[in-house]
Structures are given as C-alpha cells and as structure tokens.
C-alpha cells in the first residue's frame, strides 16, 4: 500500500481551526500526522488520539448525520422511508455503542472509536444523567425535524436518479490547491435546479454557512458542471423545526469564497518551515489564548498554555 503523504490542502474546518488557534492547528494537521502507525512516537500517538476526541454536542451531530446518510442511501436503493421511532431506535443503538467505546477506552487501541471530551477530561466513567438526557433529546429533536421536513418531502418526490452521492468526501481544485468538502445532500429538481442542502444540528452562523455553501457551489460548478444560475443553496436547521435558510447564489459570493480560500491557504503556507515539502515546526504556530476556545480545546492535555489549568468543562445547551 502506498504510504500517505501529508500535503497542504484546504477545508472549511481546517481554515476555522487555523484562525482560532495556530497551535491547535499544528497539533491537528502536523503533530498528529502518522499517529495511526504502529511505530508512531508516544507524543504523535497522543496527539492523534486527542485529534479524534469529540465533545458530546459534536457526537450528537455526527450521529444525526450518520443516520440521515444511511437513511437516504437505503431509500435510494429502494427501501421504505423509516418512521421517527425507527430512526430514534437507531440513535439509541449508536448512543449505547459509542458510550461503551468511550468508557472502555477502545480508542486507546483504535483512536477512531468514540472518545468523548467530557469523559476524557472528566472521570472517564460517568456524566450527570441530565447531561446525557440533553444529548439524547437533542438527537431526537433533530430526527423529528428531519422526518417531518418539507425539504425531505421534496427530495422523496424526486427520482433517485436525480440525487447526487450522499455526504461523500471529495475534492476539487482552486488554482493548484486541493479543497476538501462533503455535501450533505444534493439533487436536481424537475426544473433542472440543483439543490445543495446542509443539515445543521446547531444554531445558524450566517458568515460560516455562507462560506461553506459557497465552497459547495464551487465544487458543483467544477465537478458536476452545473452553471451558477441553476444552483440553489440552503441550510436546514434541525434543532429549529427543520427550518430552511436559503443563501443567494451570486457571482460575488463565489469570488469572495474563492478569495477566502486562497488567502487562508497562503497564510497557512507562510507558517511552514519548508513550504515545498509541507514541513512545519511547532514553535512557528503560537498558542492563541481564548477562554472559551481553550476550555473546549481537544489539546488541553498537551498544550503549554493550558498546563495547570482547571478542568472546568463547557456547559451543554439545548
């Protein structure tokens, strides 16, 4: 098998982490690289484990997204659309399995297994019942919104041949830069309009979602050859009753997003000791202290900025 190489690429999440804290960015994309290898150093392995830690809210979101992806792929293969109870039962199973992985520390051997932030930086065994109930309720609310959503009804009324691959990680090029994205769902309606949908399990941040959907639009234009005037972009907010939030597709949006991608990637590149070979040194990526971000950072255990700090955990809302 060809050995993986660590190349400089771009994604919305990568750019957000770089902007939030260069040191956390270094840990995620350089310090942890190769942590899956059997001969990885202890520090590299630790950073790789920390990279895969998930806060409860993010875990809940990933469960919802996984269930939606599995559901839509099954429907495309001819299965009946499941009802809410069936989806909730799937969620309960995922919650139980993930919880077992977390408390038994299966991630020590397999770092991609569920590793929950609140347990890792807590007692490793338990959380208040109120906290876990909130997460379960959050997931159930999102699934309820999904099955009753007019957006989903429109999708199901569309021939499956008009659906694009569901939530599949892919790349496209902006100049000579590889950009990663995974469109939650996209389909072409009877009028030839391509609808790009992003399921959201949190609150709306218009600036962030504008950038994300603009990135998806660039992908659709390059990989699916869809003209600008045939694109429809929307976020669907599952914690808010499945509320659709459309984002206008305009040339100015695409120019702006493309400029953001290139300027962000250039800032990343300028931090490298050896840009040609994507070689980075930890000292060139300073910590960027921020009380809110630091309290929720996966790398608290290893970051010099957090040494000796208290282990107060962020609250879960909703």
Which bin fits the share of residues in helices? 40-55%
In one word, what is the shape? globular
Q: Biggest β-sheet: count, sense, barrel?
A: 4 strands, mixed
Uncertain segments = none
Per DSSP, what share of the residues sits in E-state strands of 2 or more residues?
Answer: 5-15%
Structural class: alpha+beta
Mean pLDDT score, rounded?
95
Q: How are the strands of the largest sheet arranged?
A: 3-4-5-6
Rg of Cα set: 20 Å
Distance between the termini: 45 Å
As for the number of domains, it is 2
Number of helices: 11
Give a quick rundown of the structure.
The chain has 318 residues and is α+β, with helices and mostly antiparallel strands.
Topology, pairings included?
Blueprint: H1 12-20, H2 22-31, H3 42-51, H4 56-76, H5 84-103, H6 117-120, H7 129-147, H8 150-156, E1 168-174, E2 177-183, E3 185-188, E4 194-200, H9 206-223, E5 231-237, E6 243-247, H10 251-270, H11 291-295
Parallel strand pairs: 4-5
Antiparallel strand pairs: 1-2, 3-4, 5-6
Helix pairs in contact: 1-2, 4-7, 5-7, 9-10
């Amino acid at each position: 098998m060809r050995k993986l190489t660590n190349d400089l690429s771009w994604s919305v999440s990568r750019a957000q982490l770089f902007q939030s804290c260069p040191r956390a960015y270094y840990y995620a994309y350089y310090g942890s690289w190769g942590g899956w290898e059997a001969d990885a150093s202890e520090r590299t392995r630790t950073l790789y484990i920390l990279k895969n830690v998930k806060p409860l809210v993010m875990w809940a979101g990933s469960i919802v997204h996984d269930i939606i992806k599995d559901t839509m792929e099954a429907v495309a293969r001819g299965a009946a659309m499941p009802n809410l109870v069936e989806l909730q039962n799937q969620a309960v199973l995922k919650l139980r399995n993930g919880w077992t992985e977390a408390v038994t520390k299966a991630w020590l051997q397999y770092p991609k297994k569920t590793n929950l932030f609140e347990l890792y930086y807590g007692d490793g065994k338990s959380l208040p019942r109120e906290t876990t109930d909130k997460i379960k309720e959050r997931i159930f609310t999102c699934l309820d919104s999904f099955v009753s959503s007019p957006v989903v009804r429109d999708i199901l009324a569309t021939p499956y041949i008009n659906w694009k691959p569901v939530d599949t990680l892919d790349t496209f090029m902006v100049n000579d830069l590889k950009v990663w994205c995974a469109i939650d769902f996209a389909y072409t309606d009877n009028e030839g309009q391509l609808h790009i949908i992003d399921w959201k399990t949190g609150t709306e941040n218009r600036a962030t979602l504008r950038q994300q959907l603009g990135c998806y639009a660039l992908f659709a234009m390059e990989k699916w050859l869809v003209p600008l005037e045939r694109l429809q972009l929307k976020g669907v907010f599952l914690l808010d009753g499945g509320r659709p939030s459309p984002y206008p597709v305009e040339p100015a949006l695409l120019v702006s997003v493309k400029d953001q991608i290139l300027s962000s990637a250039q800032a990343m590149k300028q931090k490298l000791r050896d840009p040609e070979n994507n070689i980075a040194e930890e000292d060139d990526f300073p910590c960027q202290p921020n009380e809110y971000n630091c309290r929720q950072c996966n790398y608290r255990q290893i970051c010099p900025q957090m040494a000796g700090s208290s282990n107060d955990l962020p609250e879960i809302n909703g």
